[in-house]
Amino acid sequence: MKKNYIVLYLICILSLIACQENTKKTEKGVEKTKINAKNKETSTVGFKDNQTETDFKYYLALQEQLVAGQAEKSNAIAKDYIQNAINKDTEIFEIYQSITNANDIESIREHFLKLSIVLEQEIDKHLNSGTIYKINCPMAFNNGGGFWFSKSEEVLNPYFGDKMLRCGSVTATLRK
């Protein structure tokens, strides 16, 4: 009887050890995925005008900070855009002003969706070369959905960040 308890005890210990090792592998796998996402090859994109080129550059920088859940850095990007904008009389400029007044990451993400909607028209009109991917997350904004643009088809969700980093799929590919 005593041998049975010892065997059972050893099986429990081995099971716990095996579970801990799997958890560590998963955590390392997630970390490795994030690192690889930054190094992943993306397409080179060109636009017919400097304004759209600037708008898209700042958009991607803002998207990266939203993926990381960085409200302060997102605000800093918006402030930098306002200082360096070529044309200050645009809806995009107004959205960046709203972002500078936002106090939390969720508000900034709502403005980012508005920015995506407005920028879509600019991309359609002015994309001159390269590939841009339109990615949609149906669960964003209480299942109302939200989309964003990326130079990579890899899904890095700016609306959920770490909570649901991979939620979404490519719904359109814009090429010139």
Mean pLDDT reading: 82
Distance, first to last CA? 75 Å
Per the principal axes of the C-alpha atoms, what is the gross shape?
globular
Number of helices: 6
**What string, H for helix and E for strand, traces the elements in order?**
HEHHHHEEHEE
Major pleated sheet: 3 strands, antiparallel
Quaternary status: single chain
What's the domain count?
1
Work out the strand percent. Answer: 5-15%
Number of strands: 5
As residue ranges, the low-confidence spans are 7-41
What is Rg? 22 Å
Give me the side-by-side strand order of the main sheet: 4-3-5
How helical, in percent, are the residues?
Answer: 55-70%
Structural class: alpha+beta
Could you explain how this protein is built, in words?
- There is one protein chain.
- By secondary structure, this protein is of the alpha+beta class.
- The protein has one domain (46-175).
- It has 6 helices and 5 strands; from the N terminus they run αβααααββαββ.
- It has helices at 2-39, 50-67, 71-84, 91-101, 105-126, 140-143; strands at 46-47, 127-129, 131-137, 146-150, 169-175.
- The strands form 2 sheets. Strands 4-3-5 form a 3-stranded antiparallel sheet, with helices on one face. A two-stranded antiparallel sheet has the order 1-2.
- It is globular, with a radius of gyration of 22 Å.
- The N and C termini lie far apart (75 Å).
- Mean pLDDT is 82; it is low at 7-41.
